[in-house]
UniProtKB/TrEMBL annotation:
Source domain of life: Archaea
Pfam families, A to Z: Caroten_synth
Name recorded for this polypeptide: Carotenoid biosynthesis protein
Record bears the keyword Membrane: yes
Keyword Membrane found: yes
Keywords: Membrane, Transmembrane, Transmembrane helix
Ranges that cross the membrane: 28-46, 58-80, 87-109, 121-149, 161-184, 199-217
Length: 287
């Protein structure tokens, strides 16, 4: 019955099934519509076309980010046992600590400051939503590497090096776009407004994150969920569309090319596989 959809799930299996169904039902909207709307509104904010409080509205930014993270959350949800949760708690503590230290001292990312309000700030210096912004970037890279390398990802060193290379690729797209729209600003500007020191900092934080994911998550379980959930890397699809589009607007062509490279990886692993007929939007069109 229709009323049953509003009942609280009785166990994790039922909660997983409902979350998977929710993402599948709205997959195109989550992975394509939200990032495109996000890119347009952020660009309009940066270009002064939106008045306050619509420009850079932190509630909109955080809400849109959370929605685009849903496919990844749904994929990982059934794997969140005690060990995985502990790894995420440790990574949360690390991310807040290193960001606070970075804002205060300029190490390891270089001297920088936030240019817009990204929501509530911890100690008045670090966005409280930082884990929402940071964790998925590394985890998406980790999952893409598992798909690209196949069984070669069972070897620790190739898995670590390939994931770190992908994390660097992600940040070489993200930071130039974020600087262009005024999310943050660096004192030293070298690569599209970003110092090379920032990428050395990302190597450090990416290594910590990958090691914690390696320790906390069951890799066989992640592979099973990647097979079961065709949508599990849709958050990376959103990333390519959002930040690739923003970089293209500002003619940041190297980051655009790197975003295209990430997109090629998604195509290679068959993750740009939207079947509109299975979504609510598609059924409405076909009717």
């Amino acid at each position: 019955m229709a009323e049953r959809a509003w009942q609280v799930p009785t166990d994790r299996t039922e909660a997983t099934a409902r979350l998977d169904a929710l993402v599948r039902e709205h997959r195109f909207t989550i992975a394509v519509v939200f990032p495109l709307v996000g890119a347009v509104t952020l660009l309009a904010s940066a270009e002064g076309l939106l008045p306050p409080p619509l420009a850079y509205n932190p509630v909109f930014v955080l809400f849109g980010t959370l929605v685009m993270r849903l496919p990844l959350v749904a994929g990982v949800f059934p794997l969140l046992d005690r060990k995985a949760t502990l790894a995420l708690v440790a990574l949360t503590a690390y991310s807040y600590g290193i960001e606070l230290y970075g804002v205060t001292t300029g190490w390891p990312y270089g001297e920088f400051s936030y240019g817009v309000d990204l929501g509530p700030m911890l100690f008045g210096a670090v966005p409280l939503g930082l884990p929402v912004f940071f964790f998925p970037l590394v985890l998406n890279a980790y999952l893409l590497v598992l798909l690209l390398l196949g069984r070669r990802a069972d070897s620790h060193l190739p898995r670590l090096l390939a994931t770190l290379a992908t994390v660097m690729l992600v940040d070489l797209v993200l930071d130039p776009g974020a600087v262009a729209i005024g999310f943050w600003e660096y004192e030293v500007q070298q690569f599209y407004g970003v110092p090379w020191q920032n990428y050395r900092g990302w190597l450090l934080s990416g290594t910590v994150a990958v090691l914690l994911f390696d320790w906390g998550f069951d890799r066989a379980g992640l592979r099973r969920r990647l097979e079961q959930c065709e949508f599990m890397l849709d958050d990376l699809v959103s990333f390519v569309l959002l930040w690739g589009g923003i970089n293209a607007f500002y003619s940041n062509w190297v980051p655009v090319a790197l975003a295209a490279l990430l997109g090629a990886g998604l195509l290679w692993t068959d993750r740009f596989d939207f079947d509109l007929s299975e979504t609510r939007l598609g059924r409405a069109v076909w009717r």
